[in-house]
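Field reference: sequence -> structure
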Amino acid sequence: MIENLDVHGLITVRAPNVTIRKSIVRGGIVTGNRGVITNYGYDNLLVEDVDVIPAYDTVWQDAIKGSDFTLNRVYVTGNVDSVKVHPDGNVLIKNSLLENTTYYSSDPNQNGGPTHNDGVQVRGGPNIRIVNNTIRGQQNMPVLGAANQRDASGLIIENNWLDGGHCTVKLQEVNGFQLTASVRNNEFGPNRTVSNCKIAATNGSSVTDGGNSMEATGVAVGILWVAS
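Structure field:
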């Protein structure tokens, strides 16, 4: 248990059943890819009532990174990605505010091109749920659900308020992997680079939707089907 702390440093989880609660995690100086909070495959990490606010923002740093975790009432600002889900999956993100990622014009991970800033980036895996959050202010995608390292099965995006990005939700099949996702009862704000790209999905992927709408007008939002 890590509780009621102001952490001026990074947290790397190396045991199951860890809880981080009622704390601020500010990170440290990072010189290679990692998260302010990182969990690679240890079961049942709970991060609850936690602010992740980087003291040293950098092109190498995401806020929360890995798999097998639950985020509840978490606030994230800054960083390249707010949450990056690795392909072991088993992630629940709920009741949280993810906003205002940090853009860099040159990113070594993008061969020197600009950063791809996402609120939640999914690389694959089972049982990933994004429920009842506010996700906004990302330059690439507030939600990028991609099956690019493993099949992504059971991705649920539900009851969120979503705004911004190139597209706001992108659901993508890459490298021959398959995606199964449900996008329901989300409200969309007015901002995105491509005005008709609220929800984009790869042609032929197993994506279902319903009850999605624009916040200001109540107009229904459907899926824009695109090539992979």
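Note: The chain has one domain: 2-226.
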